[in-house]
Design a protein that fits this description.
mainly alpha, eight-stranded mixed beta sheet, 29 helices, SLC26A/SulP_fam
Length: about 775
């Protein structure tokens, strides 16, 4: 047999008084903290001095901070190499992602230039590459094709008159980008950057996977060389696939072969880059290399004329004059602009956070909103479309040695050189090459589907969020899919808070540790004591659930027991009035029905009153005349509030009602590990009275247990030490045990006389 090595456990011993909350407050004086008023906060906010002005300037223009510490000799060369590499990738991705936005390719170069310049001054991340992001481009494309469809007339909008179809689409894309930027800027100024926290990693993963599917389908028409109109709205992906397969026999073989060749080569080289990234000084820019080769081959063999290949075509030299947004388009696109603003910021902030942790600097979510808002507003004025950050492009900027946004500024200069001087070299580039580059870069997003089995095994609600978000985004569109996913995510949060996993605890033998009684073999449970734990806040939505679980834990319904007892007292009073109930009379031959007087139910909910009786009743003993009352075996209940972070007014009322019901059936209730904020709120809300007293609050669970054991000494025969794993260890009944009734046997007259004069000793459960 294998010998297990015994580990010597460290031990500690603490000797201190047994504390209730009141006793602790009496012994240990608290520090009085002065809380600032709203007026003080407002005054402080609008107070300006030299230090605040300096901090505000550094906050609004973060580039000043890192430029002051810029290490010219160590960082400049790395930024130059990174800027050139990122610029080449940005040119290619700008052209490719313009196709996703249903715009002429050269407008992607504008998106790779203007937002980058603005972010250089306002952004807090030093490593992300700002520009076109495929998911945002696709969302812009959905808006563009809805207002200016490929087939049929555009939506009736003032300002479209006299414009070509491409110019109308540019106006739509620029206007929705401008509106998106206004929303981001407003959220940044209002300091609501925390809103991104509501987009969990699971939701973003499912959403981006669905977006990758949409992108893949949208690029099939370029890869196959087919003419497929752009569609938007629910089930648009299904209709697009239908139109593709209807004309699949018209596939352009040259486009297909070129695309497959590009995808295979780029995929293989990217895998080499990933595998040998530690040995390679810089990643091989395979997309740029294949693009240059494809341009040369297309120009040499005249693909456009000889093989009917759709190419990029004329790229205008220089930049176009700025224009203002169309207000009518604002009204038509506000619903789509908001999710675009959220998604663009969420993705960029997530990537920026990864690099900030890796390189040990701080980013500001609100300032990032301001930076991206200003970038999109200024970019839209110069006819660029929605900008965020692409994961692959940011990875190139960081992995090639980029230290600051100097690399981003240099990448923008590379894009400017292409726009102003050498853009004509890209005119023979087949669009199928751009589609192939887009598709092969979807690998990371598509492979996120591997998270599903892991989520299913670890956290099924999160798995449901992922699946619902992904399927809804695929079938309903990205905007509606995001809304559905966010709704499902919030529902899971509500359900987890509304239906928490409550538990009954027990003492781990020989320690002051308390764990769930079902999970451990050696536990100690004093007779008549229950410990109940709720691991969530208590509020209006879960107070009824809390009370129901509490009833299951103690094994009886206290309100029902109280009403039964008061009904029994009514019956006993009637018997005493008739003079029939004397200690010398035997009622074994006669039974009396329980009082059915329901005229005043409120009286039944009041504490049992023995003042007009010459005797007191032991409710756990057998009662005369077949009177039946549920038996209560619990004398003490401990509520563990260590995980309760807040209580609202509805919960306070429900909690107080539950406590009173238990107290009125002679169950002592103790609340332990209650947060100081909750205790303060209880006092301010007049929670305590003659029945519910502040003395029931104890510092720790063990303090309350020791107090109970001191008040109710446990005999050795009543001590429960469980070494059997199960729901009924040592005779302890299941949490769902029902009310148990004591029936009087008519054969034994001695059982009839359980009403005793004035003094009743309940601790040893004997009738005198």
């Amino acid at each position: 047999p294998l010998k297990t090595k015994r580990v010597k456990m460290k031990q500690y011993m603490v000797t201190r008084p047994l504390y209730s909350e009141d006793a602790f407050a009496d012994v240990h004086e608290k520090i009085h903290r002065h809380h600032k008023t709203v007026r003080h906060h407002v005054k402080q906010y609008f107070t300006c001095d030299l230090k605040r002005a300096k901090n505000a300037a550094l906050s609004l223009l973060p580039f000043i901070g890192w430029m002051r510490i810029y290490q010219l000799k160590e960082w400049l060369l790395s930024d130059i190499v990174s800027g050139v590499s990122t610029g080449l990738v940005a040119v290619l991705q700008g052209l490719a992602y313009s196709l996703l936005a249903s715009l002429p390719p050269w407008y992607g170069l504008f998106t790779a230039f203007f937002p980058v310049i603005v972010y250089f001054f306002l952004g807090t991340s030093r490593h992300i590459s700002v520009g076109a992001f495929p998911v945002l481009s696709l969302m812009v494309g959905a808006v563009v094709t809805r207002l200016v469809p490929d087939e049929g007339p555009p939506v009736n909008i003032t300002g479209f008159e006299g414009l070509t179809s491409d110019e109308q689409r540019v106006m739509v894309a620029a206007s929705v980008t401008f509106l998106m930027g206004i929303m981001q800027l407003a959220m940044g100024l209002l300091q609501v950057g925390f809103i991104v926290m509501y987009l969990s990693d699971t939701l973003v993963s499912g959403f981006t996977t669905a977006a990758a599917v949409h992108i893949l389908v949208s690029q099939l028409k370029f890869v196959l060389g087919l003419v497929v109109p752009g569609l938007s709205g629910p089930l648009s992906i299904v209709y697009t696939l239908e139109k593709i397969f209807v004309q699949i026999e018209k596939t352009n073989v040259c486009d297909l072969v070129t695309s497959i060749l590009i995808m295979v080569v780029v995929f293989i080289v990217k895998e080499i880059n990933d595998r040998y990234k530690a040995k390679l000084p810089v990643p091989i820019p395979i997309e740029v290399i294949m693009t240059v080769i494809a341009c040369g081959v297309s120009y040499a063999f005249n693909f456009r004329v000889n093989y009917k290949v759709d190419v990029v075509g004329r790229i205008p030299v220089g930049y176009e004059s700025p224009m203002g947004p169309n207000m009518q388009i604002f009204g038509q696109t506000a619903v789509e602009a908001f999710p675009m603003a959220i998604v663009g910021f969420a993705v960029a902030f997530s990537v920026a956070k990864v690099y900030s942790v890796k390189h040990d600097y701080i980013i500001d979510g609100n300032q990032e909103l301001i930076a991206f808002g200003a970038s999109n507003i200024i970019g839209a004025a110069f006819k660029s479309f929605a900008a965020s950050t692409a994961l692959s492009r940011s990875a190139v900027q960081e992995s090639t040695g980029g230290k600051t946004q100097i690399a981003g500024l240099l990448s923008a200069l590379i894009v400017m050189v292409v726009t102003l001087a050498i853009g004509f070299l890209l005119e023979p580039l087949p669009k199928s090459v751009l589609g192939a580059v887009v598709i092969v870069n979807l690998k990371g997003m598509l492979m996120q589907i591997r998270e599903v089995p892991y989520l299913w095994r670890r956290d099924r609600p999160d798995c449901v969020v992922w699946l619902v978000t992904c399927l809804a985004s695929i079938l309903l569109g990205l905007d509606l899919g995001l809304a559905v996913g966010l709704g499902i995510e919030l529902l899971t949060v509500v359900f987890r808070a509304q239906f928490p996993r409550c538990s009954v605890l027990a003492n781990i033998t020989g320690t002051d540790i308390y764990k769930e009684r079902k999970d451990y073999m050696s536990i100690y449970e004093p007779q008549g004591v229950k410990i109940f734990r709720i691991p969530s806040p208590i509020f209006f939505a879960n107070i009824d659930f809390f009370r129901g679980k509490l009833v299951e834990a103690v094994g009886f319904n206290p309100l029902r027991v109280l009403r039964k007892r008061n009904k029994a007292l009514r019956t006993i009073r009637k018997l005493l009035k008739k003079g029939e109930n004397t200690l010398k009379h035997n009622f074994h031959s006669q039974s009396y029905p329980e009082s059915e007087d329901e005229s005043n139910m409120e009286d039944l909910d009041q504490p049992t009153d023995f003042k007009d009786l010459p005797v007191q009743v032991n409710w756990n003993s057998e009662l005369p005349a077949n009177i039946q009352v549920p038996r209560v075996d619990v004398h003490s209940l401990i509520l563990d509030f260590s995980a309760v972070s807040f209580l609202d007014i509805s919960a306070l009322k429900g909690l107080k009602a539950a406590l009173k019901e238990l107290i009125r059936v002679e169950v002592e209730v103790y609340i332990v590990a209650c947060d100081a904020y909750i205790l303060k709120k209880l006092h301010s809300c007049m929670f305590f009275d003659d029945e519910v007293k502040s003395s029931m609050f104890f510092l720790t669970l063990h303090d309350a247990m020791l107090h109970i054991l001191d008040k109710h000494p446990v005999n050795s025969e009543n001590t429960k030490v469980s070494t059997i794993h199960g729901n009924q260890c040592n005779g302890v009944s299941s949490l769902r045990s029902r009310d148990r009734f004591v029936h009087v046997s008519n054969r034994d007259p001695s059982n009839l006389f359980v009403i005793v004069f004035s003094k009743f000793v309940m601790n040893n459960h004997q009738s005198l």
